Amino acid sequence: MTRSHVLGDSATMLRRSLLHMRRYPSLTLFVAGIPIVVLLLFVYVFGGTLGAGLGEVAGGRAEYLSYVVPGILLVTVAGAAQGTAITVAMDMTEGIIARFRTMAISRAAVLTGHVIGAVIQTMLAVVVVSIVALAIGFRPTTSPVAWLAAFALLGLTAVALSCLSVALGMMTKSVETASNLPMPLMLLPFLGSGFVPTRTMPDALRLFANNQPFTPIIETLRGLLDGSPIAGSGVLAIAWCLGISLVGFLLALRLYERLPER
Amino acid sequence: MIGSNRPAISVRGLRKSFGPLVVLDGIDLDVAEGTVFALLGPNGAGKTTTVQVLSTLLSADAGQIRVGGRDVAREADAVRHAIGVTGQFSAVDGLLTGMENLRLMADLWHLGRADGRRRIDQLLERFDLVDAAKKPVSTYSGGMRRRLDLAMTLVGEPRIIFLDEPTAGLDPRSRRVMWQLIRDLVARGVTIFLTTQYLEEADELARRIAVLDHGRIVAEGTPEELKRLVPGGHIRLEFGDHDTLDRADRTLPGSVRDDETLSLQVPSDGGVRALRSLLADLDRASIDVHGLSVRTPDLDDVFLSLTGSHDTDKAVPR
């Protein structure tokens, strides 16, 4: 198996994922829809009150909007991961996967196609959610270079969660389970610094919130968008993403190898 | 004899268990190049597992298996270059169109753009899918899906093709179409390993048939050899009254009479020649026949006579 074939086969598999996406745009819209509802809910229903509790600067709805956008963007990425797990679980039940396995194709190509396809879908949803945030008054205060860096970090997070959700999608025996497994991912931004500062949480929860992977990612995003201090969060965020990507991809590869034995 | 004697597939002592369940219990097979080999058996006999092992989808627990001269365990990729598989659950992408499915195969076989397009057009033509080429596969009928499935298998021009129950669930017309496509493949020198539940299908297509039951091969031979092993073929005649029945009974020695239904069972292979001579005999004796039916040996007979232990609840009363 030459390397050019691995790349070529991955590109073929990506084309297949994109065709699926183009034929069924409703899933992409659904993936973007949930975070938009959460965004509107938190800004317009809770935002006035939550903004006042942010701390240092006396705040209101506008301040809360700028605080919550990074968390909402992560909810978007996590929600897309759920969609990916469902897509993969459905795909694995199709006979076409058995056909791929009887052909001389690189094992990684099928997975790479799914992961890159999922990342593209996720980033489309991120763009849609960002546009809604801008439309309701969100204004990042930093330079375009920082915005690009924020977009890149979201992309890296999307890679990590896509790898993980491809593995979760393969692990499950039914599509129903696949739709539930990544559910905790959607909750993690809430159990971190996504929606309120962690310092008001009870001790045990705060300890979890400060040390779970989404918090450094959210803090880094926040810093890149509103100029607040990032400190060590940046390195931690990238390390978490790379770690999750690696574990997810290797797990998915192993699950793919022993697929029909289950 | 057509085709060479070099085996396209050779299997020695194949064993496979899933946990405590023994699915394949020591199987030996040889399939000559350029022939059709049929593996015949009921649901759960191990047919699909056999195909999965031979097509590198599953690893065997024990046994020596060579496909296209290569070892399936040690040279899986070389085997994959030589084979094509069409499973009983169609291996097509339901979200894509027929054309896109074929394109996908052409890309994965690394055919150039022009080569790929030429082969796709030929296959669409040959499998009567030109009109449906741009429609999503989810709108296809069962027969169309199965034809697309086989067409996708052929994109890579494999020398050995596994067909796992290729006509299960198809209507009689689609079944005939599939049979003709399979015959065309053999005429081009392709080796076919076919699994089926239908004795008729194996009879139509295969040069050799192996009967699989509970993970063992219980009989192997040509269709004729197998049918000779199977008693139970007869012609059933019905008459209007006891008098006619008596005369017929005397005319046709060796038959079994049933006074209650005024009928006679005449042992026969059910062929046209046998039927013609039987009718001639009756004609000469001026015997009036009210009803006539032919019963040929089927898979149930094969199993009843070969294993004697096939699900008793499925045995047909006669």
General description of the model:
The complex is a heterodimer of chains A (262) and B (318). Chain A has one domain. Chain A is 77% helix and 0% strand. Chain A has eleven helices and no strands. Chain A has helices at 3-23, 25-52, 61-92, 95-101, 107-135, 144-171, 175-180, 183-187, 203-211, 214-226, 233-257. In chain A, helix 1 (3-23) crosses helix 5 (107-135), helix 5 (107-135) crosses helix 6 and helix 6 runs antiparallel to helix 10 (214-226). Chain B is built from eleven helices and 14 strands. In chain B, helix 3 packs parallel to helix 5. The two termini of chain B are 40 Å apart. The model of chain B is unreliable at 309-318 (pLDDT under 50). Chains A and B meet through helix 1 and helix 4 of A and helix 2, strand 6 and helix 3 of B.
What are the main properties of this structure?
A: 262 residues; mainly alpha; 77% helix; 0% strand; elongated; B: 318 residues; 6-stranded mixed beta sheet; 4-stranded antiparallel beta sheet; 11 helices; globular
Q: Layout of helices and strands, plus pairs?
A:
The complex is a heterodimer of chains A (262) and B (318).
Chain A: H1 3-23, H2 25-52, H3 61-92, H4 95-101, H5 107-135, H6 144-171, H7 175-180, H8 183-187, H9 203-211, H10 214-226, H11 233-257
Chain B: E1 7-18, E2 21-32, E3 36-40, H1 47-54, E4 62-67, E5 70-71, H2 76-82, E6 83-86, H3 98-108, H4 113-126, H5 142-154, E7 160-164, H6 172-187, E8 191-196, H7 199-205, E9 208-213, E10 216-221, H8 223-229, E11 234-238, H9 242-251, E12 256-258, E13 263-267, H10 272-284, E14 291-295, H11 299-306
Parallel strand pairs in B: 3-8, 3-9, 6-7, 7-8
Antiparallel strand pairs in B: 1-2, 1-4, 4-5, 9-10, 11-13, 11-14, 12-13
